[in-house]
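Local shape tokens:
==================
===
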Amino acid sequence: MAQELIQAESRQEIAEIGVEAARDVLGLEANAIHLVDDDRSALVPVAGTDSLFDLIGEPPTFTADDSIAWRVFEDNDALAVDDTHDDPDIYNPDSPLRSELHLPLGSTGSPSPPPRPPTRSTRKTSYWARSWPAAS
């Protein structure tokens, strides 16, 4: 994986390697990476796993004050949400995704790996995953 990152020629390629790493190393089958689009003031999805596309289709673009992902981006602090339906910043109340793990990438964006139904394991995965954005 390190060799792939070194050889990557674009942010897109790096993001694709990132979602594969989150899937293969952390076991986050459904995940995406969103990067900042300054022109749109938005977090735009640039890579996602097939499992995520199967669950929700095309990942959404997030803008200020409309989602947990944006809040994590602004706070620049990782967040494990056991049940998104209990969070006031839920983007889509009808989403089949119940628990989420958000890991900010500093000023560049946020990977948004939505795990499975609500579980306590979200916090355990969060502990191991916090080092992933720093290493990516």
User: Anything to note?
Assistant: The CA atoms of residues 73 and 104 lie 6 Å apart. Residues 113-136 have pLDDT under 50 and may be disordered. Strands lie at 32-37, 42-48, 62-63, 79-81, 100-102, 109-111. Residues 11-24 form the longest helix (14 residues).
